[in-house]
């Protein structure tokens, strides 16, 4: 008799409730959980891959040790002994900074990694901490830190109550929402229009979200800071500025006015490509709609002026009285308050407290930008990286010029990966420590519920008993913490032992009980309460949190934090350059793209998800294609300073002229991986051509979008028939 198990899907930020029918150890079906109050039955096609992941014969179930080019299974004891000994030796010989860590995106979807994993990393006390943050939301966190006083105080669009949503550089219909946990975002967007509201999308591509919106405006990649400055310019020029309820708590209105004066829509139009009338219209609509919000996502972050752009979107919401207001950009009241939790785990927010050794890129939140990783491995001298720990990350495919990181890896004295796949990154490790599958562990979305559009809580117990020889991520982290504990740090070592006794459930229970709903007199929230509510609980709509939650020293909102001023000359220089340039010169810039059935680099081993026509295609405007004699289906070479890749082309006017788009996370043709499905549909890695030298030098965030490339035809569709999918060019890499 099949039984039904309820849990949250952990594959993206939407946290959809799934109902999984199981018969013994077999998953019979995965459906949306209609009784989940947040996702109301919605799931996307990726949810079924939870079962594929679990049963995937390629998924590693034992620690692996590499000897030369061959791998053998090892016991946990042997693997931990080796890792502990090698890392201790390296630290002894070269110091703490010789050990680097890269943490990837799935860490944010994993209770054990968010608690024990974080604690472990901080005990290493190395300056060489890296993560996907610096190719993602870093500029958002920086804006939150600078303006509101805590890097975790990122705002969330109150999508269920807004009547006007300006979306910049986000494609929630495909990504299912980011820094906006909102299952079934499509229905939520539809509801905006159904209640008479308006959605405007600003994006270099007419995306799936743009197709659903009232209006779409093309923008030249990397120019959002200029566009938003013009919106702010118009708001002041037409005296529409309004700080609303937060006026007595906000500094810098005059500074912002002064700063925006020189960015009239006429000045910025030649750079952004957005007509002045469009700018004025959007500015007026945003300022005069009571419940309205500007929402910027990864497109405004991973670009040359990501720091400025993300800050200006926050400032725009603030000067239109949409910060911390219903229907605007709000802060959440999560059941697990991540602010105290982060402090407990040793995460200290901050910016620029130190700089990377080789290029001087700024630290953020205790981490250095991943764009600096390769050179920090390569460049000899004090502080050079000698050992690398990767955890839930695949920087070879995901980081800018991942190919250079890959070339640097063999020079490491030691590398260990905490990962369930032998993939493009982990194949360079000496040891792989594979954690349990998502269905074998308990789950609570500590991070994602803190950025959800409603306050919700849901606990998922494990569905399957883990195998006898399986370890959870948190157990792996704890074991490493024990073996690498710094001698003489008695308190830390005792804390490690105590944590180990507790496990993530107890930490979660404590956090729930001490959180805002755990201290209530009636119906106080606890782990036991959540265990009795398998579909999750709804804790209500978002509520105003300011000024109480401010973390700035003087407890005031800073509209114009000092740090940003210094970066304006760089923006002005680019503005002048773009105004002077002819935009008919045939130059091309490259941006990214996501697909509903894909998830960064690691879900291409599910046959269900990768079936169908190839997705790793270059989108190109008909005019640009015509000028190069390229037709749909032809194979082209994309070249940049980093290297060259070959991919098939799709011609469409959904992409702006002068811009081409290729998704990331492909390139599974590297030798020596164990990804039997993915390597049959390899595609090529866009991060072989993105550039580690192309960064937002102010924030340190990687500029994955807006990379200058050339595109030339290498084979016509006919010639290419039978050649299969895109491939990595055999040409020697350039660096
Ligand atoms: N060009 C370009 N590059 C990009 C982006 C882009 O838009 N364009 N997007 C960037 C963004 S936003 C991000 S977040 C990064 C993502 O890049 P990364 O953070 O490096 O993550 P993934 O590529 O998804 O790789 C995840 C790895 O974690 C492993 N894994 C999965 N689940 C678990 C688990 O529970 N435990 C452990 N230990 N391992 C697990 C997988 O096997 C895989 O090896 O890519 C970035 N790179
Ligand atoms: N299906 C699926 N879902 C995912 C992921 C996935 O890989 N697949 N990844 C997850 C992760 S790690 C993240 S961080 C989120 C990201 O979530 P989103 O930010 O919604 O992701 P994207 O679809 O990359 O949307 C970015 C948009 O920015 C546009 N863009 C590029 N350059 C610029 C620019 O200079 N200015 C402006 N205004 N727009 C620009 C792109 O055309 C694209 O439409 O998605 C998550 N969800
Ligand atoms: S939208 Fe995200 S959370 Fe929901 S089912 Fe799809 S992958 Fe899972
Ligand atoms: Mo991301």
Précis, in short:
This protein is an alpha/beta fold and 735 residues long. 31% of the residues lie in helices and 18% in strands.
Describe the secondary structure blueprint for this structure.
Layout: E1 3-8, E2 17-23, E3 26-32, H1 49-55, E4 64-67, E5 70-73, H2 76-94, E6 99-103, H3 111-124, E7 129-131, H4 138-148, E8 156-157, E9 164-168, H5 172-175, H6 185-194, E10 198-202, H7 208-212, E11 215-217, H8 224-237, E12 250-251, H9 253-260, H10 265-272, H11 276-288, E13 292-296, H12 298-301, H13 306-319, E14 329-330, H14 338-344, E15 351-355, E16 362-364, H15 373-378, E17 387-391, H16 395-398, H17 402-408, E18 414-418, E19 431-433, E20 443-444, E21 454-457, E22 459-460, H18 473-484, H19 490-514, H20 527-531, E23 537-541, E24 557-558, H21 562-565, H22 568-580, E25 588-591, H23 607-610, E26 618-620, H24 622-627, E27 635-639, E28 644-651, E29 659-661, E30 707-715, H25 717-720, E31 727-728
Parallel strand pairs: 6-7, 6-17, 9-10, 9-13, 10-11, 12-24, 17-18, 18-19, 25-29, 26-28
Antiparallel strand pairs: 1-2, 2-3, 4-5, 4-19, 8-14, 15-16, 20-22, 21-23, 25-30, 26-29, 27-28, 27-30, 28-31
Helix pairs in contact: 2-18, 3-18, 3-19, 4-13, 8-10, 8-11, 8-13, 10-11, 10-22, 18-19
The site of iron/sulfur cluster has 12 residues, from loops.
Structure write-up:
There is one protein chain. With 735 residues, the chain is α/β, with parallel strands linked by helices. It is built from 25 helices and 31 strands. The strands form 9 sheets. It has a 7-stranded mixed β-sheet, with helices on one face. Helix 3 links the parallel strand 6 and strand 7. Helix 8 crosses helix 11. The longest helix is centred in the C-terminal third of the chain and has 25 residues. The protein is globular. The C terminus is likely disordered. The chain binds ligand MGD (2 copies), iron/sulfur cluster and molybdenum atom. The site of iron/sulfur cluster has 12 residues, from loops. The site of molybdenum atom has 3 residues, from loops.
């Amino acid at each position: 008799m099949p039984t039904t198990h309820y849990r949250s899907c952990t594959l993206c930020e939407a946290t959809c409730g799934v109902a999984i029918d199981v018969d013994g150890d077999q998953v019979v079906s995965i459906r949306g959980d209609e009784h989940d109050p947040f996702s109301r039955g919605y799931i996307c096609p990726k949810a079924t891959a939870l079962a594929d992941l679990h049963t995937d014969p390629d998924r590693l179930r034992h620690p692996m040790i590499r000897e030369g080019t061959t791998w053998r299974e090892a016991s946990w004891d042997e693997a931990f002994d080796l890792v502990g000994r090698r890392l201790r030796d390296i630290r002894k010989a070269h110091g703490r900074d010789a050990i680097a860590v890269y943490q990837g995106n799935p860490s944010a979807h994993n209770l054990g990694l968010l608690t024990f994993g974080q604690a472990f990393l901080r005990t290493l006390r190395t300056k060489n901490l890296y993560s996907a943050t610096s190719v993602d939301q870093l500029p958002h966190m920086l804006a939150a830190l600078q303006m509101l006083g805590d890097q975790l105080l990122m705002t969330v669009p109150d999508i269920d109550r807004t009547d006007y949503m300006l979306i910049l550089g986000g494609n929630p219909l495909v990504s299912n929402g980011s820094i906006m946990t909102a299952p079934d975002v499509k229905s939520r967007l539809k509801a905006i229009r159904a209640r008479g509201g308006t959605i405007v999308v600003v994006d270099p591509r007419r995306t799936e979200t743009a197709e659903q919106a009232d209006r779409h405006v093309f923008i030249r990649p990397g120019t959002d800071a200029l566009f938003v400055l013009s919106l702010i310019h118009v708001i002041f020029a037409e005296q529409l500025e309004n700080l609303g309820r937060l006026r007595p708590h906000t500094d810098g209105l005059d500074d912002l006015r002064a700063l925006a004066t020189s960015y009239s829509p006429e000045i910025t139009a030649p750079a952004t490509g957005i007509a002045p009338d469009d700018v004025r219209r959007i500015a007026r609509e945003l300022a005069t709609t009571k419940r309205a919000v500007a929402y910027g996502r990864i497109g405004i972050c991973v670009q040359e002026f990501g720091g400025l752009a993300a800050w200006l979107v926050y400032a725009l919401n603030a000067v239109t009285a949409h910060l911390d207001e219903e229907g605007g950009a709000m802060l959440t009241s999560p059941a697990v308050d991540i602010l105290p939790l982060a402090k407990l785990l040793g995460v200290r927010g901050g910016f620029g407290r130190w700089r990377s050794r080789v290029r001087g890129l700024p630290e953020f939140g205790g981490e250095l930008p991943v764009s600096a990783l390769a050179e920090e491995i390569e460049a000899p001298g004090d502080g050079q990286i000698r050992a690398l720990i990767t955890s839930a990350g695949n920087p070879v495919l995901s980081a800018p010029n991942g190919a250079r990181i890959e070339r640097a890896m063999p020079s490491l004295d030691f590398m260990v990966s905490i990962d369930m796949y032998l993939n493009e990154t982990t194949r360079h490790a000496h040891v792989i420590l594979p954690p349990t599958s998502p269905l074998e562990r308990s789950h609570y979305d500590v991070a994602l519920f803190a950025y959800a559009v409603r306050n919700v809580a849901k606990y998922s117990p494990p569905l399957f008993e883990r195998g006898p020889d399986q370890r959870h991520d948190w157990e792996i982290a704890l074991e490493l913490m024990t073996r690498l504990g710094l001698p003489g740090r008695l308190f830390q070592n005792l804390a490690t032992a105590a944590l180990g006794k507790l496990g993530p459930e107890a930490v979660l229970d404590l956090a729930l009980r001490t959180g805002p709903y755990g201290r209530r007199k009636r119906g106080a929230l606890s782990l036991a309460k959540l265990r009795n509510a398998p579909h999750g609980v709804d804790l209500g709509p978002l509520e105003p949190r300011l000024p109480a939650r401010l973390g700035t020293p003087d407890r005031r909102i800073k509209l114009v934090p000092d740090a940003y001023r210094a970066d304006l000359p760089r923006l002005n220089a680019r503005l002048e350059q773009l105004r002077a340039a002819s935009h008919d010169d045939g130059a091309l810039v490259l941006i990214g793209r996501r697909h509903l059935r894909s998830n960064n680099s690691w879900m291409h081993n599910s046959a269900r998800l990768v079936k169908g026509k190839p997705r790793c295609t270059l989108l190109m405007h008909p005019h640009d294609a015509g000028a190069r004699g390229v037709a749909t289906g032809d194979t082209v070479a994309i070249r940049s300073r980093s290297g060259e890749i070959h991919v098939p082309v799709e011609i469409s006017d959904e992409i702006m002229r002068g811009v081409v788009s290729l998704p990331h996370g492909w390139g599974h043709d590297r030798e020596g991986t164990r990804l039997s499905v993915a390597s049959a549909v390899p595609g090529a890695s866009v991060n072989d051509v993105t550039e580690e030298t192309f960064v937002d030098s102010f924030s340190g965030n990687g500029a994955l979008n807006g990379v200058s490339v050339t595109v030339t035809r290498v084979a016509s569709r006919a010639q290419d028939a039978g050649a299969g999918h895109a491939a990595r060019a055999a040409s020697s890499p350039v660096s």
